[in-house]
Amino acid sequence: MNARAARRASKKQVTASRHSHAHPPSREELQRQVEQQQREIENLREQVVERDQQIADAQERVADAEKQIADAEKQIADAQKQIADLERQLATRKKNSTNSSKPPSSDGLAGTQRNRCSPRKKSGRKPGGQPGHLGQERQWVAKPDRTEEVLPLQCKHCGTALPQTPEERQTTGDASCRQIVDLPEAILPVVTEYQYPKLVCPGCQKGTRAELRSEHAHQIGERLTAVVGYLISARKMTRRDVQATMQDLFGVDISVGSVQKAWEETADAVEAPYAEVQEALATEPVLNSDETGSRTNGEKRWVWALCSSWFVFYHIACSRGVEVLVELLGAAFAGILCSDRCPTYLSYHRGLAQFCWAHLQRTLKGIGEFASTADAVHFARDMLSAVERMFGLWYRFRGEAGCGERLLTRTELIQESVPIQKKICGLAEKYVDSEDRDVRNLARAFYVHWDKLFTFIEQEGVEPTNNVSERAMRLFVLIRKITYGNRSAKGEISLARLLTVTQTCKLQQRPLLGYLLTAVHCHRRRQPAPSLRPRQSQQP
Asked: How far is residue 501 from each of residues 69, 360, 512, measured CA to CA in Å?
């Protein structure tokens, strides 16, 4: 009931009162009517206030409901994000070096049981030496250090005792020989004391002592110093392991600090050959490059490995960026740079390049294994088939073909690879706009960087994979696991130099310990160390 209706009712009551009473109402009656109307108005006001409160309560309940809906939607979104994260984590756990760009060192113990990704088909041959293989045996020593005769005591035919003295015995035919290589009972260190006596001058009667020679200024000899550098760099031993080895095998009592100094001296001895290799980087026709993380005294570092046909060069830098390549190779590299698809190389090098097909192949395998769309299944299957055909041609060119397969020349390799290249190009164009993100990204990489995929087909000295630099990096990764990184800038430099010498000598099949010994010998006499460049006969 609103106010207008109340007024109409009051007016009707007044009219009825007028008709019922001939005489006008008294003052008391009017007062009662007014009071009654006031009460009705007050009741109406209370009803309006109550309705307003009900409306406010309803609005508050609506707001609470909307807040609950928003909270529920947020919880749903959070749950969906958690599910997506868990799915990615699950996929990551299943990824290893065979189906992604993850290094083999990240596979853990389970990785020892896996089948490694290889483009080569199984030959079906049994493991070990094949028929016709000459094998390798220890070289026969022409002049042994000791000779001992082993005589039979009796005839194996009739049992008669045989004479044992040279005067009585009689031999027939040539002696059957066996040579056994062993170590002496004790390998003892050699301690040399250099005495500097003071000679009296016959003229002035004053004494004169010879100046201390530079090679006599050390308490650890040249050979021992070189062996320390060899054990740490080539055999990946810790300083304490070297200390224990010297004590156990040779009876040499040497402190860990002395081991460290010997290692650093060995690194100083190869400073010039290391600089020589660094200067040669910019002029090499083909370089393979890779990088991995490290730490120096807890700070992030990057170890770079650059490989050519005759050297393996290591460099430790604070960055993974283009400025490192500019420092090492100059503003522009004229040769062919082989690497993975790290953006650093794309930003730096504008010339001929070769992307690693091993990385691409593992990525394709991962897409196929974790496929959730039809595009992923078909793209991975068809691409892997084409890649396997391409590697088959490469092995025939390299002389690694299977039985019955004819080897290819460079011209034949180029000609027979054309349909494979067209197939790969067609697949990249087909899936470049795929709804599957992984398929789309890899297809676009093929399409955009087409000129960096098949350089190895036509260019001499280029491999389809970057395995050479990844193998070079493996030595550092093992040392990193053992030592947990470097502790100083001096340690960084020493490690880079000795790893460069170690891997370069291995590549050239040069005796590493002999090279280090010569380098230390020259260093102590302030003479130039031997070059790391291969001799003309060793040139690849």
From this structure: 68, 31, 8
Residue pLDDT, tens place only, 159-204: 889 888 888 888 887 788 888 888 888 888 889 999 999 999 999 9
Q: How many CB atoms lie within 10 A of CB 247?
A: 12
Which residues fall within 8 angstroms of residue 341, CB to CB, at 6 or more apart? 355, 356, 359, 445, 449
- Rounded-to-integer distance, Cα 380 and Cα 371, Å: 9
Backbone angles phi, psi at 431, to 5 degrees: -105, 15
Q: In whole angstroms, what separates CA 334 from the centre of its chain?
A: 27
Q: What contacts 83, CB < 8 A, 6 or more positions away?
A: none
Q: Do residues 393 and 123 touch, judged by C-beta distance below 8 A?
A: no
233 neighbors 502 (Cβ within 8 angstroms): yes
**Residue that has been written with the tokens 């550098």 in this structure:** 229
Contact 292, 303 (CB under 8 A): yes
* DSSP reduced 3-state for 317: strand
522: exposed, middle or buried (Cβ count in 10 Å: 0-12, 13-18, 19+): middle
- Report residue 9 as tokens: 């009712």
pTM: 0.74
Q: Tell me if residue 248 falls in helix, strand or coil.
A: helix
Question: Tokens 């099949």, residue?
Answer: 509
Assess contact for 197 and 209: CB atoms under 8 A.
Answer: yes
